[in-house]
Amino acid sequence: MSHNPPDSLPTPEIDSLSPMLNQQGPVWTANFRGLKLRTALQPIYSISHKRTVGYEALIRAFDTDNSAVLPLHLFELPVSEAENLLLDRLCRYLHIRNYSEIKDQVNWLFLNVSPRVVTSGSQADAFFGKLLKKTGLPPHRIVMKIVEQPTDDAERLRDTVAYYRKLGCLTAIDDFGAGHSNFERIWNLSPDIVKLDRTLLTRATEDRRARQILNGMVSLLHQSGCLVLLEGVETREQAMIAIDAGVDFVQGFYFRRPCLELSELSHSTENLENLLEEYKHRKRETHDPTQLLINHFSETFRRTIDRLRSGQSLADACGELLGHPAVSRCYLVDEQGIQIEDTLVSDSAARNLDPRFLPLENTSSADWFRQQYLRKALAQPENIHVTSPYLCVTGACMCITLSLAFRHASKLRVLCCDTLANFNHRP
User: By three-state DSSP, how is residue 318 classified?
Assistant: First the structure.
């Protein structure tokens, strides 16, 4: 029997929606404007746990000929805010009914919630609390996923997210890193999970710089107190990028496509343990760039320090270092982080100076104490320290800095040497 939406339903409640649902065995379907709605679930995996920890619920629509209707077309059908609210609640009702039939007492169910629905009306989504009570699904197993887009009422959105949290649900920001997403939304809503948009992974697959940005974004989100989920993993190489980026959870066609046959979800198609073993193998075979640089420059650095201790000028002492094709700059810093004398620039670096950054070139008396490479050197004298690649402020180029603290005439000094980040030091 088909049930169409009532003509007027400004605030659809459970009793109004129940007649629109049908049950066949353990599977529930719903009817909306002549279409049959079904639940598809796609597993979400924890990399560290090497297993499924949740499922994202996705709506699938079929016409009377059982032909699939695109979700985009389905959500274009509502002709009013009331009907839009009805469809949103109907989908959530259907998903929770189906998930409650699965013999799983642990994992999360990720539910989409439309920002238009979240911010409509004068009250928080009290319907959802009633729905959980009726179905008996514990709220701590629900992750409410809010799509990143601008909203006219940020305060009401924040209040609604607080409502879900008060219910005991987790909250997630969806499609972060695309469109209108920004960290302000993270600060305002304090989600438990941030789902990165698939475009970030696509770019990271094609561009190594984008991969570094992805890794940095994951680190920032972790520092903000959020777990990170990366969607759109479609190849084994993308799975490796996700593992290397440090994300907590992954989702995508490579692991499993959304599944309409909910009883088959327990049959995993991918062994995360094999992926992790391959990742470890790759890392073991890859030369440690930090140790490589230390080995490469250790003797030259020591000879430079000996020259400085013998009384040679900075320019004379650093001549050998500056003659190396990878070295762009050398400079000396005191124990307070203040630079002594001017920076020495290699001939090759001098030829390639960008005049647009001329105001940054003079670093005499500059204070470098904020730099981690300086503080590490001061804390462990006589040891060479190497940074990860970073943007050098003096030349606005990517560099790697080597630093070594030494004592001369009872004073602590730090020799710093900037090298080109893209130089290959392998023998």
Answer: coil
Map tokens 């990028």 to a residue.
241
Gap between the Cα atoms of 306 and 426, Å rounded: 26
> Which pLDDT band, with edges at 50, 70 and 90, does 2 fall under?
very low
Residues 330-375 pLDDT 10s: 999 999 999 999 999 999 888 888 888 888 888 889 999 999 899 9
Say which residue the tokens 């995993």 belong to: 268
Average pLDDT estimate for 75-98: 91
Q: Is residue 4 part of a domain?
A: no
CA distance 112 to 57: 8
Final residue of a domain: which of 251, 285, 319? 285
My answer on whether 192 and 72 are in the same domain is yes
Domain that holds residue 231: 14-285
Q: Which structure tokens are listed for 260?
A: 């309409």
Report whether 110 contacts 143 (CB < 8 A). Answer: yes
User: Is residue 367, in this structure, part of any structural domain at all?
Assistant: yes
What CATH number is associated with residue 101?
3.20.20.450
CATH of the domain at 324: 3.30.450.20
pLDDT reported for residue 96: 95
Dihedral, 199, 205, 209, 210 alpha carbons, nearest 10: 10
Question: Within a 13 Å sphere around the CA of 9, how many CA atoms are in the beta-carbon half?
Answer: 19
Q: Sign of dihedral through CA atoms 93, 98, 99, 105?
A: positive
Q: State the SS3 of 340-382.
A: EEEEEECHHHHHCCCHHHHHHCCCCCCECCCCHHHHHHHHCCC
CA distance linking residue 48 with residue 250, whole number of Å: 11
Q: Which of 285, 310, 343 is the last residue of a domain?
A: 285
Q: How many domains does the chain have?
A: 2
Give mean pLDDT, residues 314-336.
Answer: 94
User: Does 2 reside within a domain?
Assistant: no
Please tell me whether residues 323 and 408 are part of one structural domain. Answer: yes
Q: Is residue 403 part of a domain?
A: yes
Provide the pLDDT for residue 183: 83
User: What SS3 state is found at 35?
Assistant: strand
Indicate if 310 and 322 belong to the same structural domain: yes
pLDDT digits (tens, 9 = 90+) for 395-415: 667 889 999 999 988 899 999
Question: E strands within 184-226?
Answer: 193-196
Instruction: Identify the DSSP state of 141.
Output: G
Q: How far is it, in rounded angstroms, from Cα 38 to Cα 212?
A: 39
The amino acid sitting at 107 is: N
Whether residues 272 and 224 share a domain: the answer is yes
